[in-house]
Design brief:
By secondary structure, this protein is of the alpha+beta class. It has a single domain, classed as Bit1 (3-Layer(aba) Sandwich), CATH 3.40.1490.10. The chain contains 9 helices and 9 strands. The strands form 2 sheets. Strands 1, 2, 3, 4 and 5 form a 5-stranded mixed β-sheet that branches. The protein is globular. Keywords: Hydrolase. InterPro entries: Pep_tRNA_hydro_II_dom_sf (IPR023476), PTH2 (IPR002833). It catalyses: an N-acyl-L-alpha-aminoacyl-tRNA + H2O = an N-acyl-L-amino acid + a tRNA + H(+).
C-alpha cells in the first residue's frame, strides 16, 4: 500500500479490505440508466444554480520548465479519483463520507485545473489524495459545492492544461486499460476527468459482482492503470454494439459517456475502460 511520502502524499497504510467500496453502489443504477438513454440525451440543468453544483476538483501538476508526460499525468489522475473515493475516510462515520456519498449519489462531475510551483504546494494542504506516476502528479479533492471552493483551488486556471502527445509504449500486463476515443479531441484536463470516471465505473462494476478481492489487489497497486489513445480497430472492437451489460459481462469493458457540459457533444463515448 502507499505510504506518506514524495510519491503518494496523503495515501495511508490501511489494509485494502477496510476500504469502503460500498460508497460506489449508487453508481451502478446511474451507469445503467444513463447508457440506456438516446445518444443525444443530456441532463436538464436549466434550473441549476451554478454556485450549488457539487463536483470533485482535480489538480494536475504542470510545471512550466519541466512539464509531465501527458499519458503519465492522465494515469495519475485516473488513480487519484478512485483512490479518494474508497479511502477509509469515506467509510460511514468517516470525515469524508457525507461529501463523497452525496456526490456519488448525484452527478459525478469533475473539473481539472492546473497548478505549478507554490500553487501546487498550497493545494496539498486541502483534503484530498495525490498520486504520482512517473514524472507526473495529480491530486483529487473531496467533492464540494462550487460556492465553497477555497481560493487555493478557485484561483487555478482550467484552461491551458494541454500537453503534447507522447509515446507511452505497450500496456503493462495485468493493469486496466483506459482507451480514449480516437475521434474526439480532448484537452488534458477534460481527459483527466473522463479517465477518473472510468476507474470509478470499473471499481463499481467489480464491487457489484462481489469481486472485492480484485479491488483489494488493485488498491495494493495504488490503482495503477494504463491510458492509451485507441486506434480505429481497437475502438471498433471494444465499443459495445449490443448493450453495456453484455460488453461488461463478455468483454469486461465499461463505457464512459459524457453529458456534454464541456468540450464534447452530449452522449459522446469518451473512454472505454477494459479490465484485464
Amino acid at each position: 500500500m502507499a505510504v506518506p511520502g514524495p510519491d503518494n502524499r496523503d495515501m495511508v497504510d490501511v489494509p485494502a479490505a477496510t476500504r469502503p467500496y460500498s460508497v460506489l453502489d449508487p453508481l451502478i443504477a446511474r451507469y445503467a440508466s444513463w447508457l440506456a438513454l438516446p445518444r443525444e440525451a443530456t441532463a436538464d440543468t436549466s434550473d441549476e444554480d451554478p454556485e450549488n453544483v457539487v463536483l470533485m476538483p482535480m489538480v494536475l501538476r504542470i510545471e512550466r520548465r519541466e512539464p509531465p508526460d501527458r499519458t503519465a499525468l492522465l494515469e495519475a489522475a485516473a488513480a487519484a479519483a478512485i483512490a479518494l473515493c474508497v479511502d477509509e475516510r469515506c467509510k460511514p462515520g468517516g470525515e469524508w463520507h457525507a461529501a463523497v456519498h452525496g456526490w456519488i449519489s448525484g452527478r459525478i462531475r469533475k473539473v481539472a485545473r492546473r497548478a505549478r510551483g507554490a500553487h501546487w504546494e498550497a493545494v496539498q494542504a486541502l483534503p484530498g489524495i495525490t498520486i504520482r506516476v512517473g514524472n507526473a502528479e495529480a491530486r483529487a479533492f473531496v467533492p464540494m459545492r462550487v460556492a465553497d471552493m477555497p481560493k487555493e483551488l478557485s484561483r487555478l486556471q482550467i484552461s491551458g492544461s494541454e500537453l503534447a502527445a507522447d509515446e507511452p509504449g505497450p500496456v503493462p500486463p495485468g493493469v486496466p486499460t483506459l482507451w480514449l476515443n480516437p475521434d474526439v479531441p480532448m484537452s488534458a484536463g477534460k481527459s483527466a476527468a473522463q479517465v477518473g470516471h472510468a476507474t470509478m465505473f470499473l471499481a463499481a462494476l467489480l464491487h457489484a459482482e462481489g469481486r472485492d478481492a480484485l479491488l483489494d489487489e488493485w488498491a495494493a497497486q495504488d490503482f495503477r492503470c494504463a491510458v492509451r489513445k485507441a486506434d480505429a480497430g481497437t475502438w471498433a472492437q471494444l465499443h459495445p454494439q449490443d448493450d453495456a451489460e453484455t460488453a461488461w459481462r463478455e468483454r469486461r469493458v465499461a463505457v464512459v459517456r459524457d453529458a456534454g457540459f464541456t468540450e464534447v457533444d452530449p452522449g459522446t463515448v469518451t473512454v472505454l475502460a477494459q479490465w484485464p
